[in-house]
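Problem: given the chain below (293 residues), write out its structure.
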Amino acid sequence: MTLPTTEDRDPQSIGLSAKPDEEVLAHILQRQIVALEAARDAMPQIAGAAAALHAAAASGGKIGYAGAGSAGLTALTDCLELPGTFGFPADRMRILYAGGAKNLMTLAGVHEDDSEAGFKDFQESGLGSRDVLIAVSASGTTPYTLSAVQAANDAGTETIGIANNADTPLLREATHAVLLKTPAEVIAGSTRLGAASAQKAALNMMSTLVALRLGHAVRGHMVNLVADNEKLRLRAQRILQDLTGCTPDDAAIALQNAGGRVKTAALMLLKNLDVDTADRTLALHDGNLRPFL
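Solution.
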């Protein structure tokens, strides 16, 4: 019987229990590294998916994520991190997770098979023709995730499918198919290992590329962050000093006057503007600080 890669057993991982701890750990790490290479092989597909994500973000569209189990958790992480890291508006982010928030503590597998819930969750998401849905499923066959993608296609929502098995329904259904051809897992079927590492890498690559294109990441800094705690305030001050050459005190004052918004504070310092004028000037350039540097 031929098994899909995500369910197959890795011959190199048989007999690990008889080996010393550090040798076992070294093997697990090496298999993770091999899995990550799948993201390199999928670079053209990831670039195409990022272009769709960029178009939606630049036009004011919403970004949705769909998934179940560990793949859904990987999608959820990306969704939750983008507002804080790159300033993607939280009110334009959506997460469709099998079983909903109440399933995050138990990860009951039964919800993965609920096609009706995938359809219903999409309908309630408010995603439409200007938006994009990123669906993640290691197997590429998860019923919940597939039904969400099918509903998205029917609604004219652009879809990105990320899977670790070739020639699977998710990759056939999605507008943009990203195959992460990872090897069999150290523990057969445990796709929270190599498959999830490759998924996370692909999502990181996509979102960071989009942030760069939108001007949310400039000169290696996350300039679209809003400094709302002490760690971020100190980071924001360092960013302002690096971008404008100002003193620590000037950075702190500008940041406070700008309500913690790094781009606004930077433009105030660079062009000697007040808050309102800096905001209007940024708006004229689609929020991109790069032309002023």
